[in-house]
Amino acid sequence: MVKITFIDPEGTTTVVEAKPGQTLLEIAEDHGAKLGSACGGVCACSSCHCYIRQGLDDLPEMEDDEEDRLDMGFDVRPYSRLGCQVKVPEDCEPLVVEISQESIETWYNEHPEHRHEQQKKGA
Predict the structure, then answer these.
(1) Could you tell me the CATH number of the domain that includes residue 91?
(2) Which residues of 33-45 are buried (b: 16+ CB within 10 A; e: fewer)?
(3) Which of 8, 54, 67, 123 is the most buried (most CB within 10 A)?
(4) Is 3 exposed, middle or buried (0-12, 13-18, 19+ CB in 10 A)?
(5) Domain total in the chain
């Protein structure tokens, strides 16, 4: 199992133990972290854009499809990745994943029943 800490722009931290072989998006969805997935996780958008704050060197290298889709993202940084494309490897140190603002906004669009939470937090 790999320890993953998701941090969203609202300041919510979700710490999980995940099985290697799953994507960051699958793990986030399984544990209630607010990582958007407008395309359903098929690398057709950039809504699962996140920043790998710790553990980037342990992850598989980005493939061309992911790199092309990240070009569509906002505020792309050298440690940006798409959650749908990052499979957690077997031998991986703990990961810290910061969810981007564009991703959490997409998550709220996908889950309008939670929009009141966003309004309370002033996001």
Answers:
(1) 3.10.20.30
(2) bbbbbbeebebeb
(3) 8
(4) middle
(5) 1
